[in-house]
Amino acid sequence: MNLRLTCSFFCEMILRFVNKLKSFSADERFAEIFKGSVFSLGSRVIATLLSLITSILVARLYGAEVVGVLAIINAFLTLVTIFTVLGTGTSILRLIPEHVAKFSVSSAYHIYRKVQYLVTGVSLVSGALFIAVSGIVADKLFGKSHLSSYFALAAGFVVFKALADLGTQAVRGLRLIRTFAIMQVLPQAAMLLFLLVSIVLCNCPEAPVYAQLGAFAPVAVSGIWIMEHSFRCRMAPMDTVHPVSVREVLSISTPMLMTASMQFFIGQTGVVLLGVFRSEAEVGYYSIAVKLATLTTFILQAVNSMAAPKFSELFHSGRIDDLFYVANKTANLIFWVSVPVLFGLILFGKAILYFLFGPEFIIAYPALLVLILGQFVSCIAGSCGNLMNMAGHQLALRNIIVVSSLTNIFLNFFLIPSFGIIGAAVTATICTVFINIRLLLFIKGKYGRTTGFLPLLNYLNSLWLRTKK
User: 3-class DSSP state for residue 278?
Assistant: First the structure.
């Protein structure tokens, strides 16, 4: 009897889920984002699977220490790249659809090329600088002088990482859905391919690091070629070009740079400070917990990849009602697709850690549960950060992120030395919850409505209204 009830419950849930997806597809005002999100989500799923396969290979063949080293190098490279891209990855996502809507494709192309030259120059200078100080970073910051050669090598690939990130965002700005899907899969596919080749040819302990860094080059080159081809196919000789100076671009990008850098600190400070205070193995355990807990991030990013340019178009066209309609539908979609994944991780997370990564990684399960709570809050909050960036509230977003990142650093310094990966997970969750609640309150205060999807609150509110009647 219990089995029959359980089966009936799951069948009802699946049917409801399918009906929800059909309603998203049938909604004319949301169909473009939904169909684009399906492509993007499919590519994110493939990229995530490739990333998991790579992580499993590294964990099984090289152990937790090498997983930790790879996480530290990735954190270092991500931080350097944030400051070399200068926030233009987000601003270009806003400026390209804005200029296409107001002026022409040629106008958007001129902005893209200007930003591309700027990022290339800054990346080359920054890379050279960090190659020179790699020994100091490894010895003084991390207390691990044996990592200096890895940091120097990573600094040499900064220009490729920066151009790869810029190209991916520019593709989103032009709303090239299928191309963006390919760009999402390419980094993980290239890394897995390079890792397999390295295992066959030499199987040296440094192979995962070489594979990770080498993957950025084909992505960067592909992004440059794709954008050149895509823009030139759309431009016309009589297009109106609205000139925008580097200073104007940076005035928009700088708050976004601050936001991106602070988001890095929130996401990666745990990894960095675990690398400072604890062993490489603990970094490896935590990085796997983060990778599993943030599986729903690819859902959020997949939907946002289509929603952000649409937000910019609707806001700059003065269609505020449509903007919030799309934002609410976006949050609804994120919730229904993400929550089953999170519950699956709660139920089967320990088994996944044991069978895929090895018995030693079970120690990461409690941290995984804590991180899942933060991801759940992100799911119900929707695309609030993207809406603020696209609607010109980047300064307010920056301020909220700065407060949260400073809190993140303080809590990590306080908790990690004593509690290790649990302290890092608690800190990350506290800051994630704070950011999302604060953003929702800001949007509510500014527009009198919110982007979140709160089914439980909506249900309780409907019950309350019924009792009043």
Answer: coil
Cβ neighbours of 430 (radius 10 Å): 18
C-alpha atoms less than 13 angstroms from C-alpha of 457 in its C-beta half-sphere: 5
b/e sequence 275-313, b meaning 16+ C-beta within 10 Å? bbbbebbbbbbbbbbbbbbbbbbbbbebbbbbbbbbbbb
pLDDT at 465: 46
CA 297 – CA 404 distance, rounded (Å): 19
Q: How many CB atoms lie within 10 A of CB 254?
A: 17
pLDDT at 219: 82
Q: How many helices (H) and strands (E) does the chain have?
A: 19, 0
Mean of pLDDT values over 158-183: 78
Q: What is the pLDDT of residues 359-382, one digit of tens each?
A: 888 888 888 888 888 888 887 877
Give just the sign of the alpha carbon dihedral 4, 9, 13, 16. Answer: positive
Bigger pLDDT: 434 vs 17: 434
CA distance 353 to 293: 12
| In contact, 382 and 328? CB cutoff 8 Å | yes
Q: Are 285 and 363 in contact (CB under 8 A)?
A: yes
Q: How far apart are CA 73 and CA 150, in angstroms?
A: 7
DSSP per position, 424-442: HHHHHHHHHHHHHHHHHHH
Q: Is residue 458 over pLDDT 60?
A: no
Could you give the CA distance from residue 48 to residue 51 in angstroms, rounded to a whole number?
5
Rounded Cα distance, 47 and 51, in Å: 6
Q: Which two tokens stand for residue 165?
A: 């990130």
H-helix or E-strand spanning residue 331: helix 320-352
The amino acid that residue 67 corresponds to is V
- What residues does each domain of the chain span? 30-468
Q: Is the dihedral of CA 273, 274, 278, 284 positive or negative?
A: negative
Report the chain's terminal Cα–Cα distance, integer Å.
38
